[in-house]
Amino acid sequence: MDEMDGGNQTRASDFLLLGISESPGQQRVLFWVFLSMYLVTVVGNMLIILAIGSDSRLHTPMYFFLANLSLTDLFFVTNTIPKMLVNLQSQNKAISYAGCLTQLYFLVSLVALDNLILATMAYDRYVAICQPLHYVTVMSPRLCVSLLALCWALSVLYGLTLTLLMTRVTFCGSRKIHYIFCEMYVLLRLACSDTQVIHTVLIATGAFIFLTPFGFMITSYVRIVRAILQIPSASSKYKAFSTCASHLAVVSLFYGTLCMVYLQPLHTYSMKDSVATVMYAVVTPMMNPFIYSLRNKDMHGALGRLLPEKGFHRWI
Length: 316
Description:
Blueprint: E1 2-5, E2 8-11, E3 15-17, H1 24-54, H2 61-89, E4 94-95, H3 97-130, H4 135-138, H5 141-166, E5 176-177, H6 184-190, H7 196-229, H8 234-262, H9 274-294, H10 297-306, H11 309-315
Parallel strand pairs: 3-5
Antiparallel strand pairs: 1-2, 3-4
Helix pairs in contact: 1-2, 1-9, 1-10, 2-3, 2-9, 3-5, 3-7, 3-8, 5-7, 8-9
């Protein structure tokens, strides 16, 4: 059975990604805005990865995790924005059921991976400032690779768990998604079967995968601040804090936008949350390279060596 929408034929099993606005004029503007943001995000994160990979002075645990954070952000925006750009330029807004669940899986997994990598970076800063004499021994290459592997394993398991649970949800009636991608809460609002089990699992697993690392980061930074306050020299205090400033800024941006969307009951989730979703799905990955490159002298120098001198200074 087929249904007609916007003059184009779509299967009844398809979802319709209507995006933020259905106005043709606004869609044209949104296309160029999101295309620009996507290109800036891709170029910025690629430059971070290339700078770290090409400069041996940046082959340290902190930059190892930063390169993987940039790689995660690249995958994250590529999972959602290209499809959104196609929809903004096309009258056919359909996305298949399988395509929607695939997008959902990568979205959930990569958000979790971003969060876990930020937690490992907080641990790295804790060891560097609170146990500086043991830093090289503690943050060995083997431990760094093991921590990253654990981050990947947990995020993949988290994504698979929620996606498999979503395959048990029945959808009927309207399949219109007034969002830029297939998002968990939005899909649950469209369900006509009982979603109590998946909602309970969503809260329980979300508390583990997000709140546990967040609590770990808070604990780490409380100890870091205590250690910095005990440093007698003001210049040494500033230097120690400056190594954490970029990470703190990224953590604040990540959790601030994420909380705007998910710290609320399912029944209150509505269209107004689309702006917050755009913030964590598009703006945060775009801002991360700027935060780390402009406030970090080592990264600034590596980018300067990677790019032509004049071109680099124009870029920053």
